[in-house]
Amino acid sequence: MLVLVAAGAVLLSGGGVAASFGIKSPAQAAADAEPPAPDTLTAPVERRVVVDTVVTRGTVTAEQSFEVAPTGSAAGGSRPVITKLPLAAGARVDSGQAVLEVAGRPVFALPGDVPVYRDLKPGATGEDVRQLQTGLRSLGFDPGGDPAGTYGGATKSAVRAFYAARGYEPLPASPDGQERTTAAEDGVTAAERAAADAGDALAAARSGQGAAAPGGGPAVEAARKQAARTAEDLARARRRLAEVVAANGPMVPSSELLFLSGFPARVDSVAGRVGGQVTGTVLTVSAGALVVKGELDGADKGLIRAGQQVEILSELAGRKAAGTVAGVSDTPGPATAGQSGAGGSGQQPASRAGSGGYQLLVKPDDPLDPGLAGQDVRITVRAAASSGPVLVVPLSAVSATADGRTVVTLLREGRRSQVEVTPGTVGGGSAEVRPLVPGSLAEGDRVVVGTRSAPGRTEAR
């Protein structure tokens, strides 16, 4: 019995000793809860080129894109029904080709940068007329007898021949043009006869006076006045005929013409169908070299300017291409820069759907693969770069003092010191720094970027 009691005492005593390792005083518990001494985080000072980049998304598209939606009245009051859609999406468009037919009337594509904005009729002058003449000449219908930019007789002949070669009859500039021409011709004939009769009467009056009336007398004077009046009437009738003839003849309605900046062009999409009535866009046609159009937010807009270098990346095709910023819009909104305005055939500049950002236009340094058309790509703009290798530290190493100085904290041999610097180019989370005191900061030095106060937790300095 005594042995058992003794054994129990030993066990209780041992249990007390063991329990003493798991029980802590409040002071000890608080001490153990204190965070460990913070570790200083540093980063090396490097010497390299700093590049600041802006990354956004864009779409590969043609420089010029038109939504063709004919708005002109159909000939003879016909309904604006699509009677031909000769091209499918992705098809090539050549100069002089009809891309569409509405109520039996064609829409021809011709080269030109000035948008269609009016009917081109005989007697018209302007840059759009010159474009028409140039396009006709390139197709073998030379209006060389007319001055450049003047729709004269030679241009009328060229237009008539061009339409006939494509199986169409051009519309007359005036529906009653032939009747007006006939009436003007009849007027000239009548004036010619009246002038001839007046000439005969004057000759008879002069012959009847004989030598007795050297001045001609009243009868001769009356005949002379009549002859002068009929001569004026004849000249007026001939001028009128010339005007009517000049204004009469074939015209090119704005609804039948589409000026594109370059050929071959492409059909991007077809929304209409044969037999359907024109209620909006029938097809979209693009022309010119492939470019990339993207958007910038307000923060990035100020960093981008024309002439900056760009990397274009198609993740889908695994291809990269170099380009140059061609321009950034001054105001946010849909892309319109660099595209021709609306024409009479209803061709409106097709714009990339935007979210209200500033429109960015990038032109590739070399022609892009046509297979990239329509693809979404990544645009990386080199917004700024240091002039060469410079001293570089992480952005988190740069701070401002209470008195407004910009400094980095240098850690050498366990001792800290502040080095005043002038910041330069910033990019990729790094900043160029130039020490105010030469030699106070060098490549390979370590600067403080923060502290680690607990495992997995970092605090900025």
Automatic annotation (TrEMBL):
It comes from Kitasatospora terrestris. Residues 390-450 form the Multidrug resistance protein MdtA-like C-terminal permuted SH3 domain. This is Peptidoglycan binding-like domain-containing protein. It comes from the Bacteria. Keywords: Signal. Residues 1-18 form the signal peptide. Residues 206-227, 324-369, 442-461 are annotated as: Disordered. Residues 125-163 form the Peptidoglycan binding-like domain.
